[in-house]
Request: fold
Amino acid sequence: MGFNFKYTNLQAAVALAQFEQLPGRLEHLRARDRWYSELLADCPGVHLPPMSDTDGEVRQWTDILCDDRDAIAAALERHNLGFRRFWHPVHRHPPYHQPGGAFPNAERISAMGLWLPSSFDLSYDQAAHVAGVVRDASRIRG
Reply:
């Protein structure tokens, strides 16, 4: 049941060789999330989950929660911008299945969430373009 996320020896060797790049990558990820936070700060129907800069937390992907996820996803698709809808909550997968309504917050967040383009080399201009598409889609809805 579940998943096995253990590294192979080869994956571990690659990770160790790239360790010196880690501080720069982490700073870029923090900058990416600051860009999106600023660009989408007053966007109607779009919320970025809060995150503390002081506790060392860094997101792998930039998350947004959308009042109308389908409209924003459709706009991102029309502009050929990569994104992902949030995964289904764990309790909806067969090995851990629980009846409907067992975890209402997980269900609600799963239905609202999108991951925006979040690559290691995403530029400010690219984040601004994505944010513009999200803002336009949220205005159409509102």
Q: What stands out?
A: The chain has one domain: 22-141. The domain at 22-141 is CATH 3.90.1150.10 (Aspartate Aminotransferase, domain 1).
